[in-house]
Amino acid sequence: MTHTVAVSGATGYAGGEALRLLAGHPDVSVGAVTAHANAGERLGALQPHLHALADRVLQDTTADVLAGHDVVILALPHGASGALAAQIAERSPETLVIDAGADHRLESAEAWERFYGSEHAGTWPYGLPELPGQRERLAGTRRIAVPGCYPTTSILALAPGFAAGLLEPQDVVIVAASGTSGAGKAAKPHLLGSEVMGGMSPYGVGGGHRHTPEIEQGLSQTAGERVQISFTPTLAPMARGILATATARLRPGADPAAVRGAWERAYADERFVHLLPEGQWPATKSVLGSNHVQMQLAVDERAGRVIVTAALDNLTKGTAGGAVQSMNIALGLPEQAGLEQQGVAP
Ligand SMILES: NC(=O)C1=CN([C@@H]2O[C@H](COP(=O)(O)OP(=O)(O)OC[C@H]3O[C@@H](n4cnc5c(N)ncnc54)[C@H](OP(=O)(O)O)[C@@H]3O)[C@@H](O)[C@H]2O)C=CC1
Ligand SMILES: CC(=O)N[C@@H](CCC(=O)OP(=O)(O)O)C(=O)O
């Protein structure tokens, strides 16, 4: 059976990546493609790499256009999906709605209001299947909140250590570099080529980045106790990719020799998450265009800390690939359907 999938925000980076993956998915056909300012244009004029869909005409992003599809992927600015999702649900309750934006990720309305400054739209099942128990929550669901790109990287990097009770829940430090596509297509002065090329810079320093509560939520649920992090994002002169370095203190009495085994066991059967062989370190260029995450860890016994570095493509596993992976689980399709791409190199 073929499932029809509509993509809103089809002119953006996340929507474009969703369409690239869906165009190669054996069990879906692409339905409506919608936009905002660019409604009425040919998709090919805005996303020239999507050859198979170039002649599709972008429609307005309304519930009338989106309802009736088996699946709707919302790749819209923050705050735009809550009301629209409710209208779609009214018209077609059976539609699986997948929100690539942040609106439905957080469980705490208070954290949402503090970091996003608007009213909380609600909480949907979190689309990170590799977390313990999450596949069961996603199977058959009609609502999926796709994680943010930094949270996917950071939570996957540290979750095995928290699940195994090896890490202190305080004093967790995460520093991550992202490619510029993470910020979306809308022009921003700090993202001009001349600002970004040839150097790196931090932003959101001091605990203010909105992914902080999302990372804490995922790690706290995994740990079964409150995990507190310090998170600093940086901007790297590349289009795609995230490289996160996450460090946490080993609990007193935790055996450093047991650390690697916790990560090996957690990801042994995961198709998309790879603990690399010892001595090999992740690189963003090895995961570009693929839904795969690479990671490596070390125990710094002198500092008493575990250090994990993880790399993924922010638009694939970090957004659209994660969305398709969770969609597959919700629809009962093979989890890897449409996600068989290897990385692109050099
Ligand atoms: N980029 C990334 O790495 C990641 C992005 N996300 C999330 O995905 C969502 C989309 O991000 P991204 O693709 O980067 O953003 P872009 O700025 O690249 O694209 C935004 C899209 O939304 C459309 N749009 C803008 N305003 C409205 C509106 N008021 N109503 C309906 N549609 C609108 C735009 O259409 P038009 O061109 O016609 O104006 C465009 O298609 C965001 O919520 C983002 O947080 C999540 C994880 C990672
Ligand atoms: C480089 C860059 O600017 N990245 C974005 C995160 C992209 C992402 O995952 O975002 P959402 O939570 O918006 O879905 C940022 O830091 O705001």
From TrEMBL:
Keywords, alphabetical: Amino-acid biosynthesis, Arginine biosynthesis, Cytoplasm, NADP, Oxidoreductase
Main subcellular location of this protein, as a coarse class: cytoplasm
Residue ranges of domain Semialdehyde dehydrogenase NAD-binding in the record: 4-139
EC number(s) from the headed UniProt entry: 1.2.1.38
Record bears the keyword NADP: yes
An annotated GO BP: L-arginine biosynthetic process
A GO molecular function held by the record: NAD binding
Active site residues of this protein: C149
Catalysed reactions, semicolon-separated: N-acetyl-L-glutamate 5-semialdehyde + phosphate + NADP(+) = N-acetyl-L-glutamyl 5-phosphate + NADPH + H(+)
Localization in the cell: Cytoplasm
Gene Ontology CC, one term: cytoplasm
Pathways per UniProt: Amino-acid biosynthesis; L-arginine biosynthesis; N(2)-acetyl-L-ornithine from L-glutamate: step 3/4
Stated family: Belongs to the NAGSA dehydrogenase family. Type 1 subfamily.
Summary of the function given for this chain in its UniProt record: Catalyzes the NADPH-dependent reduction of N-acetyl-5-glutamyl phosphate to yield N-acetyl-L-glutamate 5-semialdehyde.
PANTHER family hit by this protein: N-ACETYL-GAMMA-GLUTAMYL-PHOSPHATE REDUCTASE, CHLOROPLASTIC-RELATED, N-ACETYL-GAMMA-GLUTAMYL-PHOSPHATE REDUCTASE, CHLOROPLASTIC-RELATED-RELATED
The name this protein goes by in its record: N-acetyl-gamma-glutamyl-phosphate reductase
